[in-house]
């Protein structure tokens, strides 16, 4: 990973942490108080060729920082670690015929709307499911957890797609 890529990802990390804490944590969707967990975008946009340990470490520290700000006792870290752990498998399943271009990151401009929507939605769904199950600390009120997971996943996926249209390089 070049210094330029590292600096770009560090800036993305800081921006997403800031947005999550000061904007998205103050948005409550539905009567179930669903919050968009937009910071999952950081893990989604890391380069394809990032090593497994660096991916997991990035996920852990991102989640840990949010846990410290929100006093959630490791829920963000655990749920983001699960999404980061499954990311390589999701990328293999969604792999294009020619594979992924070297030294690139997932983006809607390189791989198309359909591919990016599937990629973002699957990992957002995994992340949100883990988050709300860990938050409840079990499967009690499963229907409420399911509603929160689906609502948050659709919302976060839409925000991620919107961010790609607004900020991705053309």
């Amino acid at each position: 990973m070049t210094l330029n890529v590292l600096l770009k990802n560090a800036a993305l990390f800081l921006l997403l942490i800031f947005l999550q804490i000061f904007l998205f944590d103050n948005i409550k969707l539905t009567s179930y108080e669903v919050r968009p967990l937009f910071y999952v975008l950081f893990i989604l946009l890391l380069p394809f060729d990032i090593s497994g340990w660096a991916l997991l470490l990035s996920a852990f520290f991102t989640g840990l920082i949010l846990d410290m700000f929100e006093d959630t006792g490791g829920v963000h870290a655990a749920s983001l670690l699960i999404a980061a752990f499954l990311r390589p498998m999701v990328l293999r399943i969604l792999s294009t015929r020619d594979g992924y271009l070297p030294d690139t990151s997932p983006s809607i401009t390189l791989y198309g709307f359909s591919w990016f929507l599937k990629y973002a939605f699957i990992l957002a769904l995994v992340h949100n499911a883990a988050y709300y199950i860990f938050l409840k600390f079990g499967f009690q009120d499963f229907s409420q957890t399911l509603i929160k997971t689906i609502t948050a996943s659709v919302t976060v996926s839409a925000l991620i797609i919107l961010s790609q249209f607004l900020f991705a390089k053309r």
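Residues 3-95+103-167 form one domain. The chain has one domain: 3-95+103-167.
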